[in-house]
C-alpha cells in the first residue's frame, strides 16, 4: 500500500497533524481570555466538529506512525519535520499546563513564592493574569512542583513576552521544539553507544505520536527533562560521568524523576572503573549524587526561587488521576475502610501511595543490581526503572510513559517486536494519545478509544512478530542445508 512507503507514511502523518492543528483552533485548550482574538471559544456545533476532526487526524497520525517501516535516519528526520510543522502555530493541545508555566513564570517575576502559592495569587491586572485565569481545575491553587531551572526559563518567557498569552504560548512552543531537537540528538547518540538501531530508536522516541501531542502540542516540560537526562547519560557512557551527572542535575531541577538516572550513572562508573571494589563502589554510589547535589544547590541559589521545590514534589499526588493504579486502589480501599470501620479514607489512600512508591524503589534496586552484575545494560535498567516508577506512582498522566520509552528506545534492535517491554510501550503509546481530548479534558470515551487502539496494536504486533519468525525460518533453511543438516520445513 502507498502508505507503507516512507513518502506515503510521511504524507499521511502530516495530514493527520494538520487536521489536529485545525481542529485545535476551536477544540483545543483555549485560554480564558485572549486579547488578540485568535483563540476564542466557538459554538457547540463548531467545537464538536473540530473535536471530531482532531480525533480523525490523530488516528491518521497513529496509523502513519505504525505503518512507518525501517528507513534511513535522514528519512526519519524529514518525516519528523513534516509531522511537527503543522503543530507549531496551533493553540495549546491536550493540556492547560502551559498556562501554569507562564503564570508561574510571572509569579517569579513579581516576587511571589511559587512554592507556597498557586497561580491564583496573581491579581487580575498582573503580568500573566490571562494565563493564571486559564489554568485548569485544581492546579489554580497548587504550588509549583518544578525545580528552579525550569522556573527561570518560564520567568524569561514571561519577561520577553510581557505575559501576553499568545506570544508567551508561541515562545513556549519554540522551547518545546528545542527540546525535541535535544531529544533527537541524545537518542541518536545513545543508540550508537548502546549498539541499537538508530532509525528504530528515533521511530519510538521522537516520531511517537504521544511525544508529538504532549511535548510539541501540549508543551509539557517533561520533554526538557527527558532531553537533558538522556544527554547526561550519553556523557557518562562516553567516560565523562562528572559532566553527565551535572547535566542530569539540571534535568532534575526541571522535574525530579530525572534524578533516577544518577543511580545508573553510578552503575556505569563502577563497571567502567579500575581498582579495588570498595573504591569503585564508593565512587559510583557517592560521586554522581554529590556532583548533582552541588549543581542543583548552585542552580537553586542562583535562581533566587528558594529550596521550596524540595518540599512540593508530592503536591500533585493529592490530585486523583484515573491512570494511576495505586491511586485507584487506594481510593477504593479508603472508601471500603470508611464504610466498614469508619476509618479516614485519606489516611488509607496515603498508605497505598507509600506502598506503591516503596514497591517502585524495590524494583529500581533490583534493576540496578542486575545492571551492576552485567546481566542488563544500565540504559535498559534506567528505562525499566522509570516505567516502574510511573506504573506505581500515585499520579500518572499519559505523557509520563515517555520518561521510560525515550530511554528504552535507545536499546531497540532491528526487530523490536521480539522485545516484550518495547512492544508494550509501543502499544501503550498508540493507546494513551486517545485518553485526553484536545481541550485537555478526560472523557470516558477516551478510555474506550484507547482500549480499541491497544487491541488493534496488539493484533498488529503479533502479526508482525509472526512475519519476522517466518522470515527467520526461511533464512535458516539454506544455512542448515549448506552445513549438512536438513532444511527447516
In short:
It contains 19 helices and no strands. It is mainly α and 489 residues long.
Folded structure, characterized:
With 489 residues, the protein is mainly alpha-helical. It is 67% helix and 0% strand. The chain has helices at 6-27, 44-67, 73-84, 97-110, 129-134, 148-161, 165-194, 198-205, 209-217, 222-237, 241-252, 260-272, 277-303, 325-341, 345-372, 378-391, 401-409, 420-432, 444-482. The two termini are 30 Å apart. Residues 471-489 have low confidence and may be disordered.
Describe the structure using short key phrases.
0% strand; disordered C terminus; globular; mainly alpha; 489 residues
Number of helices: 19
Largest sheet: none
- Tell me, rounded to a whole number, the average pLDDT: 89
Q: What shape does the CA trace take?
A: globular
Order of helices and strands: HHHHHHHHHHHHHHHHHHH
Strand runs, count: 0
Radius of gyration: 23 Å
Give the amount of beta strand, in percent: under 5%
Contiguous uncertain segments of 5+ residues? 471-489
Distance between the ends: 30 Å
Q: Percent range for helical residues?
A: 55-70%
Structural class: mainly alpha
Amino acid at each position: 500500500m502507498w502508505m507503507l512507503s516512507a513518502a506515503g507514511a510521511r504524507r499521511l502523518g502530516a495530514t493527520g497533524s494538520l487536521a489536529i492543528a485545525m481542529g485545535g483552533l476551536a477544540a483545543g485548550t483555549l485560554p480564558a481570555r485572549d486579547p488578540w482574538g485568535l483563540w476564542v471559544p466557538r459554538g457547540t456545533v463548531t467545537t464538536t466538529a473540530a473535536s471530531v476532526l482532531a480525533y480523525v487526524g490523530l488516528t491518521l497520525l497513529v496509523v502513519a506512525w505504525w505503518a512507518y517501516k525501517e528507513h534511513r535516519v535522514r528519512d526519519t528526520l524529514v518525516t519528523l519535520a513534516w509531522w511537527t510543522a503543522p503543530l507549531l502555530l496551533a493553540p495549546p493541545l491536550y493540556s492547560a499546563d502551559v498556562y501554569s508555566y507562564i503564570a508561574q513564570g510571572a509569579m517569579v517575576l513579581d516576587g511571589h513564592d511559587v512554592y507556597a502559592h498557586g497561580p491564583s495569587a496573581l491579581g487580575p491586572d498582573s503580568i500573566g493574569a490571562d494565563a493564571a485565569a486559564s489554568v485548569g481545575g485544581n492546579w489554580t491553587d497548587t504550588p509549583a512542583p518544578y525545580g528552579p531551572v525550569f522556573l527561570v526559563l518560564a520567568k524569561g518567557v514571561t519577561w520577553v513576552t510581557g505575559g501576553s498569552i499568545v506570544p508567551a504560548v508561541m515562545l513556549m512552543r519554540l522551547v518545546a521544539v528545542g527540546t525535541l531537537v535535544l531529544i533527537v540528538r541524545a537518542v541518536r547518540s545513545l543508540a550508537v553507544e548502546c549498539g541499537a538501531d538508530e532509525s528504530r530508536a528515533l521511530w519510538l522516541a521522537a516520531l511517537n505520536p504521544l511525544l508529538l501531542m504532549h511535548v510539541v502540542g501540549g508543551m509539557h516540560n517533561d520533554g526538557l527533562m527527558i532531553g537533558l537526562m538522556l544527554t547526561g547519560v550519553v556523557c557518562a557512557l562516553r567516560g565523562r560521568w562528572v559532566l553527565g551527572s551535572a547535566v542530569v542535575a539540571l534535568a532534575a531541577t526541571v522535574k525530579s524523576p530525572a534524578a533516577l538516572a544518577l543511580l545508573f550513572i553510578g552503575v556505569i562508573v563502577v563497571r567502567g572503573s579500575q581498582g579495588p571494589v570498595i573504591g569503585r563502589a564508593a565512587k559510583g554510589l557517592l560521586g554522581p549524587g554529590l556532583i548533582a547535589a552541588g549543581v542543583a544547590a548552585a542552580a537553586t541559589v542562583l535562581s533566587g526561587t528558594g529550596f521550596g521545590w524540595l518540599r512540593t514534589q508530592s503536591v500533585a499526588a493529592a490530585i486523583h488521576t484515573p491512570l494511576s493504579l495505586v491511586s485507584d486502589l487506594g481510593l477504593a480501599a479508603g472508601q471500603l475502610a470508611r464504610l466498614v470501620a469508619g476509618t479516614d479514607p485519606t489516611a488509607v489512600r496515603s498508605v497505598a501511595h507509600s506502598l506503591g512508591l516503596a514497591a517502585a524503589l524495590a524494583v529500581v534496586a533490583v534493576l540496578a543490581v542486575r545492571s551492576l552484575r552485567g546481566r542488563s545494560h544500565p540504559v535498559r535498567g534506567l528505562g525499566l526503572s522509570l516505567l516502574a516508577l510511573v506504573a506505581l506512582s500515585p499520579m500518572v498522566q499519559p505523557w509520563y510513559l515517555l520518561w521510560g520509552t525515550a530511554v528504552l528506545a535507545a536499546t531497540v534492535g532491528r526487530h523490536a517486536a521480539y522485545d516484550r517491554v518495547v512492544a508494550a510501550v509501543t502499544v501503550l503509546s498508540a493507546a494513551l494519545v486517545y485518553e485526553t481530548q484536545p481541550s485537555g479534558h478526560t472523557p470516558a470515551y477516551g478510555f474506550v478509544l484507547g482500549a480499541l487502539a491497544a487491541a488493534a496494536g496488539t493484533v498488529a504486533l503479533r502479526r508482525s512478530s509472526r512475519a519476522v519468525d517466518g522470515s527467520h525460518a526461511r533464512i535458516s533453511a539454506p544455512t542448515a542445508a549448506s552445513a549438512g543438516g536438513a532444511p527447516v520445513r
